[in-house]
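DATA SHEET
Item: assembly model
Revision: 1
Owner: S.N.
Input lines:
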Amino acid sequence: MAVSATARTKYEAVIGLEVHVQLLTKSKIFCSCSTHFGDPPNSNVCPVCLGLPGALPVLNREAVAMAMKAALALNCAINSRSRFARKNYFYPDLPKGYQISQYDEPLSQDGWIEIEVEGRKRRIGITRVHLEEDAGKSLHEGFPDSERKSYIDLNRSGVPLIEIVSEPDLRTPDEAYEYLTRLRTILLYLDVSNCNMEEGSLRCDANVSVRVAGAPAFGIKTEVKNLNSFRFLQKALAYEIERQIEMVESGESIQQETRLWDSREQRTYGMRSKEFAHDYRYFPEPDLLPLVITEEWKEEVRRSLPELPQSREERFATTHGLPRQDATLLTVTRTMAEFFEEVVKGGAEPKLAANWLLNEYSFLLEEAKVGFTDFPVASADFAKLLTLVGQKTISGTMAKEVLRDMIMTRKGPDQIVTEKGLQQINDTEKIAAVAREVIAANPKQVEQYRKGKTATLGWFVGQVMKATRGQANPQLVQDVLKKELD
Amino acid sequence: MDFTALTISQIQELLKSRQATAVEIAEAHLAHIEQKDKEVRAYLSLCPERALEQAKRVDAKIAAGEALAPLAGAPLAVKDVILTRGLRTTCASRILENFVAPYDATAVERLEQAGAVVLGKTNCDEFAMGSSTENSGFYPTHNPHDLTRVPGGSSGGSAAAVAAHLATAALGSDTGGSIRQPAAFCDIVGMMGTYGRVSRYGLVAFASSLDHIGPFGRSVRDVALVLQTIAGHDPMDSTSAPVPVGDYASALTGNVRGVRVGVPNEYLKGLSSEIGDNIQKAIDLLSKLGCSIIPISLPHTDYAIACYYIICTAEASSNLARYDGVRYGFRSPQHTDLQDMYRKTRDRGFGAEVKRRIMLGTYALSSGYYDAYYLKAQKVRTLITRDFVEAFDEVDVIVTPTSPIPPFKLGERVDDPLQMYLADIYTVTASLAGIPGISVPCGKTPSKPHLPVGMQVFAKHFDETKLLQVAHAFEKAGGFKLASAGGENPVTA
């Protein structure tokens, strides 16, 4: 597309995100069927989630508690009385012909998330967080008769969802990306969802419009769907913003419509608006009583909230003196942050621990194809290893080898160091013996050194280290060599 | 002995004294159905195997000396909008013609646990929408008192079955009068408890905020016995109330001295003497029994029909969306695409009245109309409820006619849905307010052909006991057989 740079700066985008997140409850929101992902199609179903005649919904309190957790962490006000509503539309994987959702009386509203883009902090408003049920899944591909038939799997029907609607506060694809990242981090911390975009447990739609920068009114928005990864979100938004600017620039009017992101063609395209011109005919769900949240219940949930990533990041930066970037990376997941804290508690120096966790350990895990959450190395052992490094009992290079072995064998660092005889050589006599051998074997370099080319010392150190397979204490090697050469 | 003429209590006596077995009683009913139901057509399907198995279980327990369950051996009919595991449950609709229920409604489960013998499923207006059972997708049911007339509706099959001795008692469903009106037309007792008194789990939804399951019987005591069996909180229905259930049957003492009976003038003005004369006699009888009769006003009564038909159609339009041909039930065999399949399935699967109500309800909920119709109706519903709550500050029960008209001829009103809707005028108010209501016979119309007239009694929320006490005292005093005009009142003070 061809939008000039001047045109691009003339406009600003207005973006709001609607995020659907599956909650990690054991059973569905209105029946006791399992929510387990990946079971054989239509095996986790009952009269309620199949929408059989005569079946009635009964609300799962655990889903409410998790939704409240999310809402509180997103700084929302919890409504003491909210109500479920029916959203009516026909679709083959919607068994009742309506989705039980919340409409004019949601569980919670008026929250915010803080994001930071290019060093600038901004608060993004959260309009509401409400509870609803998921629909089933239509399978249009992968069967011998997929040309003629679609299949329906209702295992997902009735899985609890929260919908998190943002205010139209986002201005760039980067901000949208940052918002979604922050949101995901918070939800992962709360342990209310696994936020897995591939499995569909986190889904995102975007409302996008453009306007002349600083204009008071919003432009006409489109809704962009099918944003199944963080990358797609950014690309689709960038594309859609360009498309809209181009249209406005060329004097065309934007149509309010739903558009799909096509990741293969890298473009959005409009869905036939007739198909999606829904009047959902919302009305209060008569099969459920209003949802009443007592002050007691709300406080109980509030007390159960863990320390959230932003506050933890702050603490890591200030009390542990970590660089901001390390603090951010360490707090992306609660497990990583907690592991870090355990390692530090185990006696490791915080900066060293941060460094090793973010670099060597991540690299070695990837190499071994082991997940962080498999916890191949106990935090206590990790701390012990870093203590050995700190005390210079082993060198960094050796520590990396030891850590690799720890991941593979799940043995403790002491055991591996002893078994492999990897302790650092701190015995001056032993080192001197090796140094003398090296000196005797390299008269030319000795001469250079004595003529004043002191830089040759480094070369000698390297030779001694090589001869001791890296086990010699480098500082001692240097001291001994100086003594022997001078 | 004619086992089909017995009440539940009489059956209990016979079983206890070993004068009859549950199997004999069930068989007598099945035989009578075979002969009599050809003309009444109360049943849509029968389940003799299930019935006889259950009867055998009851007999085995008696033989083993176990205590008699409260409904042991009582042959019951179940309206075909209530799910019965392993049996077809059609809602008298082509769209569910071959639907076999995979589970039992809570009410059915509780009845069978109490020893009741389910004989079969009864006819009704399609999805309980109608007042004559002529909207059945299969065939109309006939009023046993006059086969040329309707049994009322929508639970006309259950009412006719009980009236024709094709069952001792029956379950029906009542959304706007669907138990009480056919009870009146068929000259039997029919009751709807407080909303939330009986679990709706397994009742095919028509209008969820108005739907009730309730009993029919030939005596107030039988109705009380069935109601107290099926009543009570059910964890499967969030709207079922966790309010303790009384022993209704034991509370039927016959003494109603001092009970304050309200008579709302809105229900009597313009009433034909066909109905009005008997209602007046019934009120006189209650007065003779020691009740104080108090004229009251329920000022929002006039808005009830409009309010009711907006709310019930709105809910129905959503509740019936699931019959789309995708998962179960009828699917149109010829279609070009998904939309076409939906359209043809629903066009051919549903009858005219069901489609009319789906369209009315869809309209009432549409954006731009919601506030003017649905929301307004909800406000009126609150006002109607308040009318009753205020009235019950002054009275214990309220007495009204059940229907403004006696049973009419088959086909007489099918072409005028509005006239049909207006006939629900006296029953929809209690449905909207969520209070309990019962219809009991109160004699026959004065002029020939002397058709059944029903009297309705309301009580406040969860006061089923008071309502049943008044109905029972009225029955005991001969109220069911009140003489028509010119005749003598059976009770002498």
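QC remark: Residues 131 and 162 of chain A are 5 Å apart (CA to CA).
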